[in-house]
Amino acid sequence: MLRRPLNNYISVDCVIFGYNGQELQVLLVDRTLIDNSTGQPEFTDLTLTGNHIYEDETIEQAAYRVLFDLTGLKNVFLDQFKTFAHPDRLKKENDRKWLLHDGRDPDKRIVSIGYFALLATQNITLEWKGRNVKWVSVSEVGELAFDHNQILEEALIALRNKIKQEPIGFELLPEKFSLTQLQNIYEVILSTELDKRNFRKKIARMKYLIPTDEKQTGVSHKPARLYVFSREVYEKTKKELFDFTV
Amino acid sequence: MLRRPLNNYISVDCVIFGYNGQELQVLLVDRTLIDNSTGQPEFTDLTLTGNHIYEDETIEQAAYRVLFDLTGLKNVFLDQFKTFAHPDRLKKENDRKWLLHDGRDPDKRIVSIGYFALLATQNITLEWKGRNVKWVSVSEVGELAFDHNQILEEALIALRNKIKQEPIGFELLPEKFSLTQLQNIYEVILSTELDKRNFRKKIARMKYLIPTDEKQTGVSHKPARLYVFSREVYEKTKKELFDFTV
DNA sequence: TAATTAAGTGTAAAATCAACACTAACTATG
DNA sequence: CATAGTTAGTGTTGATTTTACACTTAATTA
């Protein structure tokens, strides 16, 4: 079956966040532009991952497709956070070359619907289907093509807001994890330090954190107990919170 | 100057919330489809407000333009909350007739970028520029055209989340307001009841609420003191909150 | 001037937050 | 095999915030 893009000028961009146990990372695509005449690489740019939306799929399905094509994973946490359509968003010199090379009119607008995804880095086999993708620490991301630095920035804001409201830290961890790992995720995302005892007291109040009998292995210190997140308990116990905080 | 739509199939939809002192309302457009052959009205549908995006404007500018055209107001609170693009979102019979009548292909997708706006109903002169718009209580909205019921639903969710985080209740009130009015806004939006004394204690801790010397007039009971919201104080005192609540 | 209506105000018990330091369990090394 | 190194794990106290709860005040209207 032939699937045509719904419209060349609408796409999804996925900010795929990963956590490797130390730092928050983002999955970037390394694109090299081949000069059509010489066949030589002209320049290389880093971009977020993204794609067109096909006629027969929802935007959410398009975002899941991008994720699956790059990581081989389904059932990934995914959240739409903002749509970008500034008329000048593609005015960098290299961006224009890219679009021309891609057969698109660089003076037309691209409306880009932003999603962010969360996954545990260790689950991923990269270079999936020949694409040249890599994890980059969020704190070390340099200049990206198009307006992707801005999109990443907004994704981070959305991620911070989300993690303050809902227990999505687990999405960045393997199924079994230690409390220190979980705390580290909050610290990294919120750029703050948390008190170990207070954090544990607070998280313990949430019933959805289930201790297992297993412990860390292969560490040269006291091994941590491993926990799992119970989505069932979470769904049961979540109640509307009326912290109209400000 | 000729302004052409950026793309017929991308639009902004504005969920314009208003508050009249009692209930939360939404501004709806009453559209009557005139049969091209007979010149007679074929049917009437209610929709949210919306429009195309022009080539030379940002989506945010397009949303402000929609707002201004309908209400004559600038400087309105406006927030992008979600983009809608389900392939089947325009499959109702009347929706198709409308799009045909409008010169559009009803089988093509319309990507609609949702904004919600907040304003005090009493500031508004309706029927602006001949458009047939009206306030409808949010709790009494019936079936809308297209997928506008779903968009309204998501706008309400976004509004509830927002008001729990930021002091935007003031946007629904005239410049000077009583504490009871403010409390009522929280109660209406969050569908809950709040204790008067506790609400006042909490809101008093926020320094941005400035009492004036004025009192309500024309009420047949003890008149309430009027307050104003100080944006300056708010900007100064807001600090990052680390309530990773859940 | 009495009735009606909504405004405005305080306290006490319970829950949560914030600050803070030591012991336990494992590995690696000498 | 003893020691050093490393991270896990745990409780208390004072300050702040939340929750629950009822009466007096100031205006209008009858």
Description:
2 copies of one chain form a homodimer. Chain A is elongated, with a radius of gyration of 20 Å. By secondary structure, chain A is an alpha+beta fold. Residues 239-246 of chain A have low confidence and may be disordered. The N and C termini of chain A lie far apart (53 Å). Chain A is built from 6 helices and 9 strands. Helix content of chain A is 28%, strand content 27%. In chain A, the strands form 2 sheets. In chain A, strands 1, 2, 3, 4, 5, 6 and 7 form a 7-stranded mixed beta sheet that branches. Chain A has a two-stranded antiparallel sheet with strand order 8-9. Chains A and B meet through strand 5 and helix 3 of A and strand 5 and helix 3 of B. The structure holds a DNA duplex (30 and 30 nucleotides).
Tell me briefly what this model is.
The structure is a homodimer of 246-residue chains. In chain A, 28% of the residues lie in helices and 27% in strands.
Q: Biggest chain pair contact, residues each?
A: A-B, 39 and 38 residues
Gross morphology of chain A is elongated
Mean pLDDT of chain A: 88
How many helices of chain A? The count is 6
Q: Uncertain regions of chain A: pLDDT < 50 for 5+ in a row?
A: 239-246
Q: Strand portion of chain A, in percent?
A: 25-35%
Share of residues in helices of chain A: 25-40%
Oligomer: homodimer
Instruction: Find the structural class of chain A using helix and strand composition.
Output: alpha+beta
Rg of chain A: 20 Å
| SSE series of chain A | EEEEHEHEEHHHEEH
Characterize the main sheet of chain A: 7 strands, mixed
Intertermini distance of chain A: 53 Å
Give me the count of strands of chain A. Answer: 9
